[in-house]
Design a protein that fits this description.
The complex is a heterodimer of chains A (112) and B (111). By secondary structure, chain A is mostly beta strands. Chain A contains no helices and 11 strands. Chain A is globular and about 35 Å long. The termini of chain A are far apart. In chain B, strand 5 and strand 6 form a beta hairpin. The chains are: A mainly beta (112), B mainly beta (111).
Chain lengths: 112, 111
């Protein structure tokens, strides 16, 4: 089966610019997750979707971060405006219910 | 969620078994032990999980002590491609994705 697909793989932007990341989960996986991974740390959950509904966005900094999963399939995570501290790897994962998570390879964001 | 303790790093010779320990002394009765690994520049990869019984799949074996306070992930014949950070996580199923990955163990498999 095809895995979780994320794009772009790398992104370099200047601070205060907007940026968007895209994720296509494994076909049939109803649950989609966005994680943030800082260098040398484990991933931390930003938001979880059950189909098209964001059921847990408590860790998402809503002043500058937004996400959507309009048709309950692929998803977009946006940052506007980006700050230097947002430099990190943004990971997307999906699962079918409570099955183990499948992760994409992430988008490495560098904010200069 | 129960917290886990893992050694920060380990070495293993290629072809030998890699035994990665994890302590989870405060684990609750309904919490599973999950293992994920993360190869450099890739996302985490699910390996195996278990509740009470030992588990084996095509990737690894998971040995959980009878009191469930610790576990060991065994890679029976480590290869260079097994070099990665290995995360031991305890969770009630997926815990809604709020898996606490911790620092993990950096396993280096050497020729």
């Amino acid at each position: 089966e095809a895995g979780v697909v994320q794009s772009p793989r790398y992104k370099i932007i200047e601070k205060k610019q907007p940026v968007a990341f895209w994720c296509n989960p494994i076909s049939g996986h109803n649950t989609l997750y966005w994680y943030l991974q800082n260098l040398g740390q484990g991933p931390e959950l930003l938001i979880r979707y059950e189909n098209e509904e964001a059921v847990d966005d408590s860790q998402l900094p809503k002043d500058r971060f937004s996400a959507e999963r309009l048709k309950g399939v692929d998803s977009t995570l946006k940052i506007q405006p980006a700050e230097l501290g947002d430099s990190a790897v943004y990971l997307c994962a999906s699962s079918l219910g409570n099955s183990p998570l499948h992760f994409g390879n992430g988008t490495r964001l560098t904010v200069t | 969620d129960a917290k886990t303790t893992q050694p920060p790093s380990m070495d293993c010779a290629e072809g030998r078994a890699a035994n990665l320990p994890c302590n989870h002394s405060t684990i609750s009765g309904n919490e599973y032990v999950y293992w994920y690994r993360q190869i450099h520049s890739q996302g985490p990869q699910y390996i195996i999980h278990g509740l009470k019984n030992n588990e084996t799949n095509e990737m690894a074996s998971l040995i959980i002590t009878e009191d469930r306070k610790s576990s060991t992930l065994i890679l029976p014949h480590a290869t260079l491609r097994d070099t990665a950070v290995y995360y031991c996580i305890v969770s009630r199923n997926n815990q809604g994705g709020k898996l606490i990955f911790g620092q993990g163990t950096e396993l280096s498999v050497k020729p």
